[in-house]
Recover the amino acids of this structure.
């Protein structure tokens, strides 16, 4: 079964940190650019960050630059999103997904299904 499993979300106060994990169950991450996306209630899903297959290239949404860091461990078949200095506007369900190419206009592979995501809530 080929699917992503997101984990690591939770409730955090503003200014706190969380580390999200995206595990590729049933397949490797070789040759795959991966992106993190999020969707807040009443809003469209948006791209947060992406990383190229080798980890040599990354991109971030303007809203998270300087606060979030994406990384990957292909041997562990896992992509991470370190989230620091969290803000209430970061509250959303976070998903990971393959992207055709990790550039400034990255988007999810339209042929792939979405996982369940992991809920991140930032509130005092």
């Amino acid at each position: 079964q080929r699917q992503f499993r997101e984990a690591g979300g939770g409730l955090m106060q503003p200014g706190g940190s969380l580390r999200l994990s995206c595990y590729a169950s049933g397949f490797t991450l070789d040759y795959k650019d991966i992106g993190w996306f999020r969707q807040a209630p009443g809003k469209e899903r948006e791209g947060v960050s992406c990383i190229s297959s080798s980890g040599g290239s990354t991109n971030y949404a303007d809203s998270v630059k300087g606060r979030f860091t994406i990384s990957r461990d292909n041997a562990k078949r896992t992509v991470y999103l370190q989230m620091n200095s969290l803000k209430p506007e970061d509250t959303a369900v976070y998903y990971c997904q393959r992207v055709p190419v990790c550039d400034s206009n990255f988007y999810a592979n339209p042929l792939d299904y979405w996982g369940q995501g992991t809920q991140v809530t930032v509130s005092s």
Notes: The beta strands are 3-7, 10-12, 18-25, 33-39, 46-51, 58-60, 68-73, 78-83, 92-99, 118-122. The chain is about 0% helix and 45% strand. The first strand starts at residue 3 and ends at 7.
